[in-house]
Amino acid sequence: MSKIVKLHRGLDISLQGAAAKEKCAVKIGKVYALQPDDFEGVKPKVVVKEGDKVKVGEPLFINKAYPEVKFASPVSGTITLVERGERRKVLSVQVEADALQEFVDFGKKDVKNLSGEDVKKALLEAGLFGYINQLPYAISTNDQTAPKAIFVSALRDMPLAGDFEYEVKGQEADFQAGLTALSKIAKVYLGVGEDSSLANAEDAEVIVFKGKCPAGNVGVQVNNIDPVNKGEVVWTVDPTAVIFFGRLFNTGNVNLTRTIAIAGSEVKNPAYFDAVVGAQVEMADLIEEGNVRVIVGNPLTGKVASDKATCTVGAHCSEITAIPEGEDADEMLGWILPRFSQFSVNRSYFSWLMPKKGGYKLDARVKGGERHMIMSGEYDKVLPMDIYGEYLIKAIIAKDIDKMEALGIYEVSPEDFALAEFVDSSKLELQKIVREGLDMLRKENE
Q1: What is the pTM of this model?
Q2: Any idea what the Cα angle at residue 413 is, between residues 61 and 198, rounded to 5°?
């Protein structure tokens, strides 16, 4: 019987445009772009040059600090561009895909007969190891770390997030192979929601989480199952990456195809589509005309697309969402209106009396400017972790490393503060603050 963890804090935000559980057709360009920024904490060293031919599974770049950690090409084809930004920072490595895909054959393997070292070696060789993250620091891990446990969250409950239960259908064997492989390295915890189809997964301790968002955040699950103390490391793995690992062992090939939700109030027909990591999706036919914000990810934790006409599927991207910018909103009488159709956390609008069926149509406006931090307990209401969120944020702002450590910074990642940022009356960019604090601490401890 699965263990059940009940969380009593959090906030569910129902937005219009949830993806229907059906596949749709999308236009995808011939050029694929693997972006180093998708792998937090990695300093890339490009190992290909423009004009080179690559197969699926051959490395495009490596982690400069840990050269054995490679990052595989998602497609076979010709390197067309190594895109760089300020100070020659590598933004992407772009590959024009061949009509007929060629794969590096890494050989099929029976994961039940592999050791932990065999699994690590296989993932490193195939350029997939970098898809494993770690706490502390919420970064892409390296093969020198020794995790006390590995956490996989198959529960996605952020607004408009893609449903992993839908994605995994037909791929259960690959997912199970991936779990079994990871279990050779350390104990695996699999977090799921109620009535999950994955409750009987083998080679992992299945934990059922009952509660509001962010119950699906892997950091929240770690905090409630096996918190991270100073000097300890846990690995966290996106459930789709577990499928990637399973495919490698079952087929001998790297296959980075994932199922993406296209969702949001500004999407014409919200649904799902299959695409390879790095695919560039043409958005013109998918979203409504007008002032629209396209987000790679969900509205709370995703990144705003630099070009809303073409959106690149990130390495950890499970959804692409589109919401109104809101800059052209004209609200008569402003805040005085009772607002029956707008979402309110603290019941300042009358909408809490009659929740809107089908979700709310929220836009990207902040509705206010940054101001002094108010110690009101707002964060604690939506942060189901055993930490003092407001005091931790203050310690990060003050760059007080001792207090940051004492207040639990080793246990958190930026996404854990996404809801706190949403409800914050001080309008602080909490996720950015947490990321800066983690980077500061990592640099201090190197």
Answers
A1: 0.95
A2: 85
